[in-house]
């Protein structure tokens, strides 16, 4: 006969509170994409860390995700050099979602500062992941590719003229090449105009 387990009592959290809690170090590792060593050797040894590991012989600890998110962001603010950690970026993402409702109600200086710091952390993470690129770098690469493409397309009319019948009047061949080059030029110029508008 299978063993029955007692149902666990759950406390009703206050209205509007975030209730997400990790119970194990493994769950915490997956939330923040960090190693077990980071949590046990660094986070848990920091007296300001809001989570508690399971007592000896027990299975579950208590790791409140929202408080850990805030702790990570505060810790990140104290760091002055280097890119933000993956865990801090995840915390900023989660708090960005969690704080957007609160920010609508509380538009204080503190809330605006927190939003700005989260946006800055997100930008730093995106720069580190090379998601954000300087506009001039992108534009320069597009112009370089455009130049290569244009040179390739301008060879087409001459290549096509070579396969035209041999007995065709040379003036007609030259007119064909000229008109084809005009079409290629128009297409390339319209692409450059669209790039300028972007």
Structure description:
The chain is mainly alpha-helical and 198 residues long. The chain folds into two domains: 21-128, no CATH class; 135-197. Helix content is 64%, strand content 2%. It is built from seven helices and two strands. The protein has helices at 25-32, 36-43, 65-78, 86-105, 109-128, 135-162, 170-197, and strands spanning 21-22, 63-64. A two-stranded antiparallel ribbon has the order 1-2. Residues 7-17 and 97-106 have low confidence and may be disordered.
State the main characteristics.
mainly alpha; 2 strands; elongated; two-stranded antiparallel ribbon; about 200 residues; 2 domains; single chain; 7 helices
Question: Spans of 5+ residues with little confidence (pLDDT < 50)?
Answer: 7-17, 97-106
Number of strands: 2
Distance between the termini: 70 Å
> What's the gyration radius in Å?
31 Å
Helix percent reads: 55-70%
| Mean pLDDT metric | 75
> What can be said about the biggest beta sheet?
2 strands, antiparallel
- Give the strand content: under 5%
């Amino acid at each position: 006969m299978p063993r029955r387990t007692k149902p666990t009592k759950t406390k009703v959290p206050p209205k509007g509170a975030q209730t997400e809690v990790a119970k194990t170090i493994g769950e915490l590792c997956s939330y923040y994409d960090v190693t077990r060593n980071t949590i046990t050797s660094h986070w848990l040894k920091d007296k300001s860390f809001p989570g508690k590991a399971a007592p000896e012989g027990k299975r579950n600890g208590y790791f409140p995700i929202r408080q850990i998110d805030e702790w990570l962001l505060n810790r990140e603010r104290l760091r002055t050099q280097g890119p933000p950690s993956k865990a801090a970026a995840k915390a900023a993402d989660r708090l960005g979602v969690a704080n957007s409702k609160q920010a609508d109600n509380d538009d204080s200086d503190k809330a605006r500062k927190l939003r700005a710091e989260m946006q800055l952390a997100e930008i730093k993470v995106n720069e580190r992941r090379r998601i954000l690129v300087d506009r001039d770098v992108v534009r320069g690469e597009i112009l370089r590719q455009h130049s290569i493409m244009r040179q390739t397309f301008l060879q087409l009319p001459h290549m096509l003229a070579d396969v035209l019948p041999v007995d065709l009047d040379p003036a007609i061949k030259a007119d064909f090449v000229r008109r084809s080059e005009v079409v290629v030029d128009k297409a390339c110029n319209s692409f450059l105009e669209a790039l300028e508008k972007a």
